[in-house]
């Protein structure tokens, strides 16, 4: 009997992973659901086996299903549903024309489950890596309300907005990251390959090197010595690995995310991005008929920042006790005052979903402006940094020149 690694969440909201022996992923999911657990992910536990043949099935999992792929699928499938095409036939058509092999495989499996009597949302829930809780919840609401085509169109719009927002963030980070990599590469390249040449000339002529030049010579010797170089790489790799492991803990995630919100330039961008994502996602869920508590749980898990997630979770508890969402968010002091006030107006007028969409539009525009401002600020800063790193090497080489001229004379 195969074994599956199942990641589930208990009633208290704590996630854990465990191994379950079952005949199929569906059976493993059902076993844990009967225990009162919410199943998040089911993966077959495959050990390494070699029987003389090379199994290349793992190549099917090397690709990924992007947000853009899901947005295109949602819009095209919405058109088929709206045209009255049967669900099974529509899924078959979408699978046939799908260019993403991984998504194609998932759609074929979903089509098979639907043919056996499962609802579309239940079939999609069995593939959490392709369709997350947000997607499944909206599909379920669309099936219940008989407006599946409208929900699919909203999903495609939501995913397209997310893609546009993510691209804006990537464009803001791309320039400083690329320039930093170039600067570091040039600096270490000159230290490793150029400084030793001048060091040899200085040693032949004799004389004492200036402190700054000697410091770079020592750094060059350190990097060119194999055992020291390996030690340095191990240290850097260990530091990165340690930070990643620390971030996986709740305390580490809260600490790092709190620091990221207070960073100059980037902190404001991160906050505005989180607010825009929260309002857009929550508004789409509310408009699709998903219950508010379920919507808040989904938004909490997709916030992208642990501090924001904690604030949303506290707001969910407040709403569950009969409180107002806007007042609960205002207590946490994580969301901007403008956002909480507009949400409050939406609650009082009974048009919370419309107001959330307006807040999302506003903060997405704010993110776009912040990206442009950050890029204009970062360009001169990075030019100065790059020039400073290269200039430090040149200064270190030219400082001893005065002594060299004296020694030559």
Describe this structure in words.
The protein has 409 residues and is mostly helical. Helices cover 73% and strands 5% of the residues. The protein contains 17 helices and three strands. The chain has a three-stranded antiparallel sheet with strand order 2-1-3, with helices on one face. A hairpin with a 5-residue loop joins strand 1 and strand 2. Helix 11 packs antiparallel against helix 16. The longest helix has 58 residues. The radius of gyration is 28 Å and the shape is elongated. The N and C termini lie far apart (87 Å). About 4% of the residues have low confidence.
Element layout with pairings:
Layout: E1 3-9, E2 15-21, H1 25-33, E3 38-44, H2 67-82, H3 87-97, H4 101-115, H5 120-125, H6 133-145, H7 148-205, H8 211-224, H9 226-248, H10 250-261, H11 266-287, H12 292-301, H13 306-320, H14 325-332, H15 337-349, H16 352-398, H17 401-408
Antiparallel strand pairs: 1-2, 1-3
Helix pairs in contact: 2-3, 2-7, 3-4, 6-7, 7-8, 7-11, 7-16, 8-16, 9-10, 11-12, 11-16, 12-13, 13-14, 14-15, 15-16
Let me know the average pLDDT: 80
Report how far the terminal alpha carbons are from each other: 87 Å
Give a count of the beta strands, DSSP E runs of length 2 or more. 3
Strand order of the largest sheet: 2-1-3
Q: Which percent range describes the beta-strand content?
A: 5-15%
Individual helix count: 17
Q: Major sheet: size, sense and barrel closure?
A: 3 strands, antiparallel
Gyration radius (Cα, Å) is 28 Å
Q: Which structural category fits the helices and strands? A: mainly alpha
Query: Judging from the principal axes of the Cα atoms, what is the shape?
Result: elongated
H/E topology pattern: EEHEHHHHHHHHHHHHHHHH
Helical content class: over 70%
Low-pLDDT residue spans: 47-62
């Amino acid at each position: 009997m195969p074994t599956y690694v199942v990641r589930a969440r208990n009633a208290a909201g704590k996630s854990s992973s465990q191994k379950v022996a079952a005949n199929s992923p569906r059976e493993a999911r059902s076993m844990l659901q009967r225990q009162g657990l919410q199943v998040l992910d089911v993966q077959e536990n495959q050990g390494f086996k070699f029987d003389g043949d090379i199994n290349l099935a793992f190549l099917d999992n090397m690709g990924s299903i992007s947000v853009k792929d899901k947005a295109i699928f949602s819009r095209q499938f919405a058109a088929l549903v709206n045209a009255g095409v049967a669900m099974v036939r529509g899924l078959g058509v979408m699978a046939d024309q799908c260019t993403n092999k991984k998504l194609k495989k998932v759609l074929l499996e979903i089509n098979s489950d639907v043919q056996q009597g499962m609802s579309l949302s239940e079939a999609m829930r069995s593939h959490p890596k392709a369709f997350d809780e947000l997607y499944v919840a909206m599909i379920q609401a669309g099936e219940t309300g008989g407006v599946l085509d409208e929900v699919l169109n909203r999903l495609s719009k939501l995913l397209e907005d997310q893609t546009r927002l993510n691209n804006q963030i990537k464009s803001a980070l791309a320039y400083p990251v690329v320039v930093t990599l170039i600067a570091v590469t040039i600096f270490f390249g000159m230290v490793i390959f150029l400084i030793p040449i001048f060091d040899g000339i200085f040693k032949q002529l004799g004389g004492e090197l200036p402190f700054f030049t000697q410091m770079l010579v020592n750094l060059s010797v350190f990097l060119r010595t194999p055992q020291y170089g390996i030690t340095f790489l191990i240290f850097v790799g260990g530091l990165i690995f340690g930070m990643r492991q620390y971030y996986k803990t709740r305390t580490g995630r809260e600490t790092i995310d709190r620091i990221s919100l207070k960073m100059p330039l980037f902190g404001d961008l991160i906050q505005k991005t989180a607010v825009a994502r929260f309002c857009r996602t929550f508004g789409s869920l509310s408009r699709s008929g998903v219950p508010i508590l379920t919507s808040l749980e989904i938004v909490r898990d997709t916030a992208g920042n642990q501090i924001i997630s904690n604030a949303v979770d506290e707001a969910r508890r407040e709403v569950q006790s009969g409180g107002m969402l806007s007042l609960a968010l205002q207590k946490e002091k994580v969301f901007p005052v403008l956002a909480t006030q507009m949400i409050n107006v939406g609650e009082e007028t009974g048009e919370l979903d419309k107001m959330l969409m307006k807040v999302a539009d506003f903060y997405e525009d704010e993110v776009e402006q912040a990206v442009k401002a950050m890029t204009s600020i970062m360009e001169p800063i990075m030019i100065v940094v790059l020039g400073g790193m290269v200039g430090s090497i040149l200064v270190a080489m030219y400082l001893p020149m005065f002594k060299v001229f004296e020694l030559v004379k």
